[in-house]
């Protein structure tokens, strides 16, 4: 999981990109007019097709991908995969949109799931519905979160690349010192806030929990499971307004309670690195995080316990943030080769290597059942909790207005975290901005 954190930016969170809709619209127009991409069909004199993949990975994950590509090429001697891009995935969207505008773009790029709806508006994005429904890809055994994150208007517009979920990692030592039982499945948000309060010791610089305070996607996605559990949704059934006017207020009341108790460390910097350092130094009782953080926790020597997210209803619910491999049309030969490669990459025998060595959760139940993954789970404390959470995980909607909705909610959360607004006032401001964004034709 450490590879994931390093591969896709600090804490592996998605960073909102202002104005990306306008950039993508311009890129789509530029791609229609451009001819740079089509000038080279990628087919060599001997019939070998070369495809370009902007992977966005670094360190361990990059090495794992290089190994997978080498194995693919040995089994498919007429297809070569050139790994490039030159940027990490945090800034991949900007590079891809500029490339689309210039008419010279890769065959495959690593695109965050929260950006896919906007990227898919480009006519250069290849429809992968038939590819993932092929016999070689276990599409029906993929977790629902993985399938939904790449589906736009009923069509599969990308292949799932990485899967995760949220749970609560607890410091056993601090729980023992506070005389508190470790949480288990079915615990409530009331119990969470109560334990956060009792774990806090201001004199010793200890906090019950932490929350990112920058207003970006890292701040926001921790609130969606609460909203869903309370019966709300990101967008209402009509698609013209937010679906969390009431549930969002109730969820923000949990945040306000943490603030009142002074039990929450608010991280002022993007990436949540300071928040995690507080936990790794043994001064935080609970961290809401994903499996990517476990290697750092183990390396720090923290005796830890992993519990599912608390609930209001007693029903398990969490969020998954899948990212994608998106294919762009550079002619039939290259598109066909790209589809062949991604179909191969999504098979369980390749997926399990990516999961074990680079830090994703299994894309499918078939991968989860493989001995290599079972062995990884047996060797990693708490990993089974994150995997089991995929059974009930939900994803943010693949909606072109999602970034604006997220930005508005992020501002509301920060206002509550900093004591600048009540949950009711913060949610009203959020609703005004988010509803306005949802009314814009797209």
TrEMBL record:
Keyword Transcription regulation: no
Presence of the UniProt keyword Acyltransferase in the record: no
Annotated keywords: Signal
Leader sequence residues: 1-33
One Pfam family from the record: SBP_bac_1
Highest taxon in the source lineage: Bacteria
SUPFAM superfamilies in UniProt: Periplasmic binding protein-like II
PANTHER family: ABC TRANSPORTER SUBSTRATE-BINDING PROTEIN (PTHR43649:SF30), ARABINOSE-BINDING PROTEIN-RELATED (PTHR43649)
Protein name, as recorded: ABC transporter substrate-binding protein
């Amino acid at each position: 999981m450490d590879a994931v954190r390093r591969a896709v930016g600090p804490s592996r969170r998605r960073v909102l990109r202002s104005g990306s809709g306008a950039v993508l619209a311009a890129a789509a127009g530029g791609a229609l007019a451009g001819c740079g991409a089509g000038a080279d069909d990628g087919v060599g004199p001997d019939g070998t097709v070369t495809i370009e993949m902007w992977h966005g990975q670094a360190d361990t994950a990059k090495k794992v991908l290089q190994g997978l590509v080498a194995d693919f090429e040995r089994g498919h001697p007429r297809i070569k995969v050139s790994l490039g891009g030159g940027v990490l995935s945090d800034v991949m969207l900007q590079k891809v949109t500029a490339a689309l505008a210039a008419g010279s773009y890769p065959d495959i790029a690593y695109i965050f799931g929260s950006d896919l709806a906007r990227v898919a508006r480009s006519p250069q994005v290849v429809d992968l519905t038939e590819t993932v429904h092929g016999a070689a890809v276990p599409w029906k055994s993929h977790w629902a979160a993985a399938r939904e994150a790449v589906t736009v208007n009923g069509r599969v517009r990308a292949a799932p690349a990485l899967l995760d979920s949220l749970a609560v990692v607890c410091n056993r030592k601090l729980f023992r010192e506070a005389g508190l039982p470790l949480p288990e499945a079915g615990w409530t948000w009331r119990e969470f806030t109560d334990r956060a309060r009792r774990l806090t010791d201001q004199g010793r610089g200890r906090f019950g929990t932490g929350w990112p305070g920058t207003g970006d996607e890292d701040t926001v996605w921790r609130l969606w499971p609460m909203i869903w559990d309370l019966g709300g949704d990101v967008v209402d059934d009509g698609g013209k307004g937010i679906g969390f006017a009431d549930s969002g207020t109730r969820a923000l009341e949990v945040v306000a309670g943490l603030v009142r108790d002074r039990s929450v460390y608010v991280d002022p910097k993007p990436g949540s690195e300071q928040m995690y350092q507080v936990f790794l130094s043994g001064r935080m009782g609970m961290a809401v995080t994903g499996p990517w953080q476990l290697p750092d926790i183990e390396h720090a020597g923290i005796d830890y316990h992993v519990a599912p997210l608390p609930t209001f209803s007693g029903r398990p619910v969490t969020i998954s943030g899948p990212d994608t491999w998106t294919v762009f049309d550079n002619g039939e030969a290259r598109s066909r080769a790209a589809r062949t490669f991604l179909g191969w990459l999504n098979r369980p025998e390749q997926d399990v290597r990516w999961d074990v060595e680079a830090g994703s959760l299994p894309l499918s139940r078939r991968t989860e059942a493989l001995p290599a993954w079972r062995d990884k789970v047996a060797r990693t404390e708490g990993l089974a909790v994150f995997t089991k959470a995929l059974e009930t995980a939900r994803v943010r909607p693949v909606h072109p207005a999602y970034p604006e909705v997220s930005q508005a909610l992020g501002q509301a959360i920060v206002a509550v975290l900093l004591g600048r607004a009540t949950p009711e006032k913060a949610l009203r401001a959020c609703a005004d901005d988010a509803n306005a964004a949802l009314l814009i034709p797209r």
